[in-house]
Amino acid sequence: MTAKNPPPDRDASSLDAAGGRMTAKNRPLDRDASSLGAAGGRMTTPTIPERGGHPTFLGMPPFPRTAAEALADPQLRANLQHATTTIRDKRVRAVAELPDWEALRVAGAAIKDDTLARLPELLLQLEERVTAAGGVVHWARDAAEANGIVTAIARQHGTTEIVKIKSMATQEIELNIALAEAGIDVWETDLAELIVQLGHDLPSHILVPAIHRNRSEIRDIFTREMSKVGRPAPDDLTDNPGDLAEAARLHLREKFLRSKVAVSGANFAVADSGTLVILESEGNGRMCLTLPEVLISVVGIEKLVPTWADLEVFLQLLPRSSTAERMNPYTSTFTGITPGDGPQEFHLVLLDNGRTATLTNPTGRQALRCIRCSACLNVCPVYERTGGKAYGSAYPGPIGAIITPQLRGINQHPVDEQTASLPFASSLCGACYDACPVRINIPDVLLDLRARAVSHQRGHLGERAVMSAAKATFASSRRLAAAQRIGGLLLGRTRRLRGGPAWLRTRTPGWARAWFTHRDLAPPATQSFRAWWKKTHR
Amino acid sequence: MRVALFITCFNDSLFPEVGKATVTVLERVGVTVEFPAGQTCCGQMHFNSGYRAECVPLVANFASVFAGYDAVVTPSASCASMIRHYHPVIAPDRTPPPVYELCEFLTDVLKVEDVGGYFPHRVAFHRTCHSQRVLRIGDRPQRLLSHVAGLELVELGHPEACCGFGGTFSVKNPDTSAAMGNDKTADVHATGATYLTAADTSCLMHIGGLLSRQQPPVRTVHLAEILAGTA
Q: Which Pfam families is this protein grouped with (chain B) (predicted)?
C-alpha cells in the first residue's frame, strides 16, 4: 500500500508549510524555512508542455493519463498525503474555534452571490472610486488583452524587469510568458513561486505552488539557477531550511530595491471604497506594494465585495481555510495612490477571461464565489493522490475541475479533450463542499459540467452505447428481468470474475478492462431478487 | 403505513442477498413490505455520468411505480441520495415519494435500534460518502450495529475518506480509483477485521474487488446482511 509509507519525519510546524508561504521577514526563520522541507520528494511530473521555451499548462493530456503518471511516483504520493492530511487536520481545528463558522460560510456565500448578481453596477462603482483615488482602470476581455495592457504599461516606463506578488489571475493568463516574449524579466517574489520559476516548473497547488519540491531539490535549484538571474546562492549553501530562506531573501532583496514596476493580483476589491486587499504570509507582497514606482494589479472581476464591512466575513473565512491560521501575518490594503508614499502610479486591470460566460450557468456560476483558499484541494482524495499538475491548469483540485472548464467556455461550446476530462476527475465524495468556506456545491457543479461535456462530445461511441443500452433495459421492468436471466445464465455459474484470466484485461472493451486491471467482480446472480420475490411472495 | 422496498437495479441483479436480508430485517421488526414489480433503476449512473436526458424516463418510472406509498425503503445510501436530491432536479413537476435509506428508516421512522441481529465477527464499518455527506446519516449505522449480538465493531483509520468507487469514476479514472481503494483496504487490514460492511453495495463491490486479490481474506457484507443474521 504505497500511500501508507511512513510520513516524512517532520514536526507539525512544517505544515504551515502546507500553508507554505515562505516569509521573508518577521517570522521565526526555521519555522518558515521548515516549510521548505514539507513537500518531500520530487514529483514525476507529467511531461510539461512548453511555449516559447516556457512551461505552460496548455496542451497537457487528459486527466486520467496525467493522473496515472503522477500515481506512479510513490514518493509524491507519500509527500502529498502527509502534507494534505496535516493541513486538513489543522484547518478542522482552526475552524472549530469559531462557534459561528457555519453562519460565516452562509454570509460569505450570500455576499458573493449578491456581488455576482450586481456585478455591472459594482464594477462601475469600483472604477469610479479607484479613478477618484488617482488610479487608472483598464478592462480586459481575455488573457491577450490583459497581457497586452500590462506589457504596454511596462514598456511606457521603459522597464526591463518587474517584481511580482503571487497571483492566481496572472498564472491563469500566463502573464509571465507574455512579458518574457516582450523582453521583460519577471521576478516571482513569493518563495514557493520563486522555487517554481527558478526550476522552470509549473505550480501544483493554489497556496503552496512548490508543494512537490523537497529541500535538497530546492538547494540544487538555487545553486544552479540563482546566479543566472541575479545574486548567486552562497557557495556553501546547505539544504537547511533557514539557509535556503536566507539565500532567497538575499537574492530577492536586490530585485525589490531595483525594480520600478510591480505586478500583483488581489484577494478582494472593495467597490464602495476602491480599495484592493492582499493577504499574504511572507512580507514579499508588502515590499512589492510599497517599493516600486508603478503598481499594476490584475484582478478577476469576481474578486469584488460591495463594502468595506463585508471584509469582516472574508478575513475570518480565508486564513482559517487556507493556512489554518486565525489571521495571516500580512494584510495590505491600498486605495489608488497616496502622494509621497508608495507607488505614484497605480493601474487596475479588471479581468473577465471567461467569467461573464461563467455567469450564464445558473448552477456553475457559484464557482465565482471562490476566494482561492485551497481548502478543497487539501481535503480532496483525488488531489491527494495525483497532485496539482495533473489538472493541466493554474487551478488544480476540485475548484479547478469546475472553474477551468467554465473559463475555457464549456457553458458555450465544445472544449478540448483535456478540459472536458476535468469534471470527471472526481469521485463525487463531497468533502470539498463541506470544506468550502463560501459553500460552493462543487459536486453539483461537476454534475452540471459533466452533462455539458457529454452533450458536446463527439465520439465516445462505446460509452454512449452502454448508456443507451442501460436506459433501454431500465425503461421497463420486464426488459430488466430478461437481462438478468440472460446475465445469470451466461455468467452466474462463475464463482467470481477474476482479473486473472488475461482476456478480461486485454480482450474486453475499455470499461471492463479498466475494472479488471485492478479488481475482481462478483458475477451476476443466478436468480435475481425480483425472481426470488416472485417465487416467495405470491 | 404502506412501505415499499426499492431494491435498486444493482442489488437486484448482482447482490440479491442484500434485498433478501433487507426484507428479513423489516419483517422481523413488524413491517409488511411490498415490492412493486415495475421498479427498475433510479438513474444514478446516467445522471452522475452526464447523461441527463437518459435519466428522464427512469425518474418518471420511479415516480409512477412508487406513487402512493408512505415510505420507500432502500438498502442503498447513494440511490437514496439520488432520489432525494436529484430527482426533483430532473423532474421538477413530480414529487418523489419519501425515500429512506434502511438505517434512517429503522432509527428515525420506526425508532428501532435493536433488530435482533447476531453476527459473531470482527467487523469494520465504512461510512460511504453518500451516507455521511449527502444523507448525513451520522452514527445511525453504528447504533444499529452496536445492538448486534456477538459483533465486534472496529473503527477504520481515515473513516471519512472516500473508497474511490465513484460510479463510472472507477472506470474513467481507474488508476486513481484503485489508488484510493487500496488505501482503504490497507486501513481495513490494519483493523484485523474479517468483515467489512457499509450501507452501500457499490462501494463494497469496489473495495471487495480489491480485497479479493489481497491477503488476509476479508469479506464484504452489506449492513442489512449483518442485521439479518441469526444464531
A: CCG (PF02754)
Residue A290 has pLDDT above 60, yes or no: yes
**Which residues pair with residue A346 across a beta bridge?**
A295
Fold exhibited by the domain B3-109 = Rossmann fold (3.40.50)
Residue A467 in domain: no
Asked whether the beta carbons of residue B176 and residue A499 sit closer than 8 angstroms, the reply is no
The CATH number assigned to the domain holding A69 equals 3.40.50.10420
CB contact set of A45 (below 8 Å; sequence gap of 6+):
A69, A70, A201, A202, A212, A389
User: Domain containing A502: what range?
Assistant: 477-536
Whether B62 has a pLDDT exceeding 50, the answer reads: yes
Contacts A426 to B, Cβ<8 Å: 166, 169
CATH of domain B122-228: 3.40.50
Chain A nearest CA to B210, separation (Å): 5
Residue A462 lies in a domain: no
What is the interface pTM, i.e. ipTM, of the complex? 0.96
Question: For all residues of chain A together, what is the average pLDDT?
Answer: 88
E-strand spans in A288-354?
294-300, 304-305, 330-335, 345-351
**Nearest C-alpha of chain A: how many angstroms from B203?**
11
**Angle A29-38/A241-258 helices, nearest 10 degrees?**
100
Measured between CB atoms, which of B14, B37, B171 is closest to A525? Answer: B14
Q: How many CB pairs under 8 A join A and B?
A: 201
Percent of chain B residues past pLDDT 70, beyond the cut: 100
Domain identity same for A342 and A484: no
List, for residues A193-227, the tens digit of each pLDDT value.
Answer: 999 999 999 999 999 898 888 888 899 999 999 99
Q: What is the pLDDT of residue A502?
A: 61
Of the candidates A317, A351, A385, which is a domain's last residue? A351
Chain B residues near residue A44 by CB distance under 8 angstroms: none
Cβ pair A428:B35 closer than 8 A = no
Domain residues of chain B, as ranges?
Answer: 3-109, 122-228
Total number of domains in chain A = 2
Strand order of the β-sheet with B99-101 is: B33-34, B3-5, B71-74, B99-101
When pLDDT is cut at 50, 70 and 90, the band that residue A82 belongs to is confident
Nine-digit cell string for A538: 405470491
Using alpha carbons, select from A537, A331, A339, A368 the residue that is nearest to residue A445: A368
What does the pLDDT look like over B105-146, one tens digit per residue?
Answer: 999 999 999 999 999 999 999 999 999 999 999 999 999 999
